[in-house]
What does this fold into?
Amino acid sequence: MKRLLLVLLALPTLVFAEDTLSSGDTAWMLVATAFVMLMTPAGLALFYGGLTRSKNTLNTIGMSLGAYAVGTLVWVLVGYSIAFGDGDIIGTGKVLLSGITSESLSGTIPELLFVAFQGTFAAIAVAIASGSMIERVKFSTYMIFAALWIVAVYAPITHWAWGGGETLNFGEMDFAGGTVVHLNAGIAGFVVAMILGRRKDYGKAAIKPFSPVLVVLGAALLWFGWFGFNAGSEVAADGVAASAFLVTNVAAALGVIGWVALEWLIYKKATLVGGASGAVAGLVAITPASGSAGVEGAIIIGFIGGALGFWAVSKLKHMFKVDDSLDAFWIHGLVGIWGSIATALFIADYAMPEDYSLGSQLVAQFSAIGLTIVYSAIVTAIVFYIASALTGGGRVDDETESRGLDETTHGEKAINL
It folds into this structure.
């Protein structure tokens, strides 16, 4: 009788636990949000800035910095409402964060913190896409494109996957953004690269990275920030977050090994640019599976992600005529597809639902991949044409491209000697 009474007294706590603020979860998500923030204006900026040529380094870094600034503004104005507001196809009701106060909760954390966390995802997604178009796109065009793309492409896809859009939610497993962020951004960059056309000297002269040192440093910062990206997507300080943290690290390490191993076998060289790119490929691959894969799965997912990235960049991309400047599609888009498929293949026993069916889950994964590719490609093209029209054309003139965008657009040099 006494035990029954204790259970009855505990029922209100059990029933309303989800609506109670957790200081532990909140503290972790504050840290995770700061981790992910570091990825765009620091990690990706240095990674991309080191990969481009010296005459365009600052412009490339500026696109990541600008994406974070514009993305943050657009997100709080309308992006969050579209992604996480009430509604099926499109979310509504939270424009300018209407109705959200410091007392509002999203699970066990303040909703305002959830807004900030998700906003960092929107910003890095459009910044990733910039890697396909650098060295020839107008800075003004890209800034307008970034704002429009988050509203018209990123936010709706986020709503379908995570925000309650049931009609276009196929039951895909995407823990931290394999399709929502990486495939979406990769497709967007590829489409814009096709519209812009190739750089003047593409295929005619050697285009070498400005600074492999910056590339490695940027990759290290991305690796660090990815712990918040993946483990933070649990939105709680618990065992799943800890598992996501571990498998993220393992997959990144195996991505390095996968890329460099193939590089050594084929070219007898182990480049640091290759190793850094392999780390990013491994991180991309594990992203959708980070909440469900175990260490064994992470080893396979990360290694194949790194090897696939190397093969795509060194061999496959040359079969296409598209000048994807920094290989954003091949490392984020193609490897993102692998990660999404691998999510269905490598579910750890402890994370597998009782009614799990590999066939059904693969159908769900491929359906989400297909929807993301088609929607992102079509709407990205429309958005870029609009941004181009508003800026008198999206591509810089020949003289600006030859001199570089650092001096012509920003009046600065990456290094003043």
Observations:
- The two ends are 83 Å apart (CA to CA).
- Residues 18 and 341 are 31 Å apart (CA to CA).
- Confidence is low (pLDDT under 50) at residues 1-17.
- The longest strand covers residues 105-106.
